[in-house]
Amino acid sequence: MQDYFKYAIDWLDAHNLTVVAVILSVIVAIVRSLKKRGKIDWLEAVLCGCLTLTIVSALEYLALPMQLSIFVGGIVGFKGTLWVDRMLSLIHISEPT
C-alpha cells in the first residue's frame, strides 16, 4: 500500500502544474456559473477542465513553459468553452491541396 502512495505522490510531483491548472479551471467555471445563473453547471465545469488538459498537453508538445498552464486554466474557466470554441473558429487552417 505504501508503494501505491509513493507512486501517486511521485506522479503528482511530476504533474503538479497540470493538476493545478485543471482544478483551477473547474473551480473558476463553477464560480462563473454560480454568478451568472445562481446554480452550478457541472457539465460546463468538467468540459472546462478537459479543455484545459487538452491545451496544456499542446503547451508541452510546443515546448512552451508549463507555468502557462495555470494561466490557461484560469482563462478557460473564466471565459468558458463556448468562448474557446469561437476563438478556435476564427483560426482558419487551410486544407492541404
Please describe what this structure looks like.
By secondary structure, the protein is mainly α. 79% of the residues lie in helices and 0% in strands. The protein has helices at residues 2-14, 16-37, 42-61, 68-79, 81-90. The model has no long low-confidence stretch (mean pLDDT 90).
Task: Detail the topology: elements first, then pairings.
Blueprint: H1 2-14, H2 16-37, H3 42-61, H4 68-79, H5 81-90
Major β-sheet annotation: none
**In what range is the share of β-strand residues?**
under 5%
Q: What is the residue-averaged pLDDT?
A: 90
Number of beta strands: 0
Oligomer: single chain
Radius of gyration: 16 Å
Helix amount, in percent? Answer: over 70%
In whole angstroms, how far apart are the ends?
56 Å
* Tertiary shape: flat
Order of helices and strands: HHHHH
Class computed from helices, strands and strand pairing: mainly alpha
Give start-end ranges of low-pLDDT stretches: none
Number of helices: 5
Provide tags for this entry:
97 residues, mainly alpha, 5 helices, flat
Short description:
With 97 residues, the chain is mostly helical. It contains five helices and no strands. α2 (16-37) packs parallel to α4 (68-79).
